[in-house]
Amino acid sequence: MQTRIGEHDTQLSSIYDALENLLDKKEEEKEQKEKWLKRERIGFKK
Fold first, then answer.
1. In angstroms, how far apart are the furthest CA atoms of the chain?
2. Burial (CB count <10 Å: 0-12, 13-18, 19+), residue 4
3. pLDDT, tens digit, for every residue of 12-31?
4. Quick one: pLDDT band at residue 46, thresholds 50, 70, 90?
5. Which string of b and e fits 5-43 if b means at least 16 CB within 10 Å?
6. If you average pLDDT over every residue of the chain, what do you get?
7. What is the pTM of this model?
8. Nearest-CA neighbor of 12 among 24, 4, 22?
9. Distance separating alpha carbons of residues 46 and 44, to the nearest angstrom
10. CB neighbour class for 2 (10 Å; exposed up to 12, middle 13-18, buried from 19)
11. Neighbours of 46 (CB within 10 A)
12. 7: number of CA atoms within 13 Å, CB side?
């Protein structure tokens, strides 16, 4: 029984780590998009 609980803990830990990585990537993509929108534009201005 104790080994099963240990296995579940390690599995849940890996799931939480994966979710944190996904959230970090999402935040990073948002920052890159904002940076892209705020860039200095070149060419003709309207």
1. 71
2. exposed
3. 999 999 999 999 999 999 99
4. low
5. eeeeeeeeeeeeeeeeeeeeeeeeeeeeeeeeeeeeeee
6. 88
7. 0.58
8. 4
9. 7
10. exposed
11. 2
12. 4
pLDDT of residue 24: 92
Nearest to 9 by CA among 24, 1, 20: 1
Give the torsion through C-alpha atoms of 18, 20, 22, 25, to 10 deg. -140
For residue 14, give both structure tokens: 């890996």
d(CA 45, CA 37): 16
Q: Quote the CA–CA distance of 33 and 22 in Å, as a whole number.
A: 17
Task: Say which amino acid occupies 2.
Answer: Q
